[in-house]
Structures are given as structure tokens and as C-alpha cells.
Design a protein that fits this description.
Layout (H helix, E strand, L loop, with lengths): L17 E5 L6 E4 L6 E4 L13 H4 L8 H21 L4 E5 L5 H8 L3 E6 L2 H9 L4 E4 L12 E7 L8 H11 E12 L4 H6 L13 E2 L2 H10 L2 E7 L6 H12 L6 H5 L14 H27 L5 E8 L1
Parallel strand pairs: 4-5, 4-7, 5-6, 7-8
Antiparallel strand pairs: 1-2, 2-3, 3-9, 8-11, 10-11
Amino acid sequence: MITSQKSAPCLGCGQELKKAFNAIEPGFEVHRCPSCGMGRTWPDVPSCEIGRYYPAVYYGKDNVRFNPLLERLTQLFRLQRARVVRHRVKAGTVLDVGCGRGFTLSYLKSLGFKAHGMEFSDTAAWHARNVLGIEVETGDFLNSRHQKDTYNAMIFWHSLEHLPSPIEALVRAHELLKKGGLLVVAVPNFDSLQARLFGRHWFHLDIPRHYFHFGKKTLKKEIQAQGFSIVQMNHFGFEQNPYGWIQSFYNALGFDPNFLYSILKNKTARTHQIRQHLMQAALTLILLPLFTLLSLVLVLVETALRQGGTIEVYAVKR
């Protein structure tokens, strides 16, 4: 049950947060700062308990989450990400915080980087370690054993919002990067058209695994405040943004939350069994062409307005 205790002050500006809406996940709310717009999941789950929201099914057997076609697309997106990083900074040491299966690090390694990763648990790190041979440390990033002024690049790709202390993580990243080193951050955009239109049904909320919800202004402000200069901010992401629209349409219409996302996964990572939801599966397939077309149009609109469903930031340490 949600406690009656007030939410903690805004992490960005210290103002009192206001309730925005009840989350789909029972027992949680989303609060928003009326001043800077930063959001927070409330109540937040203590670090010692958050593991129960990352069960084995969350990762899939051997960390394989999607069907073969989507798995291949995932790898292509990671390859492109690695190439962008290599374009922005010379090859050297790189740390990916929340490296997942390690595809990005593996591609960076092939481009001349010395690759290191961090993950939440041994389960999350299994593929990167045992299949790709990447060095991955598990545990708390803030208390990690990494040395100051070590890394040429650091990556928080849809991982910063999973951390209970994201501002402290940016401070730590500044310490670990060499001067002129590259910081890469991608997060869902809490100020996006998607977020504002769908509210509690927005696919990218992912509560309670996402502790905080950044908008463009708050993310930019916090990155700059920790000693970085932003060199690029993208509002178009083909990997995340179109699907954000598609799944949010279904959620808003009353389908089981993230039903399509579940059935697109490998069978060991699904939270829904298709044979038990035949009518819903049929309606999902019927509506998919329409929602896909709408999503592509809306991605162009949100990109033009610089209100994309996710944002990517590239910054250098001053």
C-alpha cells in the first residue's frame, strides 16, 4: 500500500513534489516537481528490496529476451551506438553502467576500446561475461572500485533512471572520466509528447524499476551542473521512440499492460502466455498496422518539436 508520508523533495531543485497520477503497478504513485518538472516514483523501493522486481523472467534464459528478429535488430542498434561513441572520442577505456548483455561493449572492443561493464546482478551480467567475455563488475556503482581519471568514455544507456541516486552517479562519472572524456546518457523523456498524452499508461515509465523520471531540461541542467559540456542532444531514437507510442496506445485502450511487449519476447521472458489470451492477441495483431503507422508519423512530429519519447545526450568532461 502507498504510505501517507510525503514524497522526498525534488532531486533537481529541492521543491516539494506533487502527485501526478497513480502508477499501473499497484501501490505506487508518480510525483512531479511543479518547478522543474522532474518526476519520481513513490514510494521508492529500497536497494535491498529492488531485486524482486528483476526476476529471472525479466532477463530470459541465458539473457535472451526477444524473438530472433528483434534480437538481431537489437544487436544492430548496439553496433550503431558503438560507432557513435567511437566517432565522439578516441579509443581507450570505456565503462558501461548497466551494460546488459554487453553487445555495445563487445562492438566497442572491436573498435579498439578496453571494455568494462557494471551490472545490477550476476544474472544480468551473465551473457556479457560468459558469452562475450566482457569484464563486468556487479554491485553499487557509487561504491565501485574504479579509479579516478581512468575512462575515456562512460555510458548510462537507459540505466541512470534505474539508480536510486542518479545525481551522485553523475558526480561519480565525472570523477572517473579523464578530462575531455565522453559521457553518454539516454533516458525516457518525462516531458515528451508520449509521456504527457498517456500519463500512467506510458510504456517507458517502467515502475518501480525507474526511480526517477527526467525531462530534457532537468537532465541537461544536472549534467551541466556536474562539470560537463553537452555537445549533442538527440530526440530521435528509432530503437525506443516508435515502440513507445505503439505500446502506450494498447495500454491506454485497456489491454493488459505491456501485453504486446511480452509476446514479442522469447518464451522464457514472457509474462503472458498467448494461448491464455487468444482474443487479446488477435485484437493486438489487428490493430498493429494502424498503431505502427500512427507511431511513425508521431515520431516525426515529436522529433520536430524536440519532445521525443527518449533523449540521448553526449557530453564531455570540462
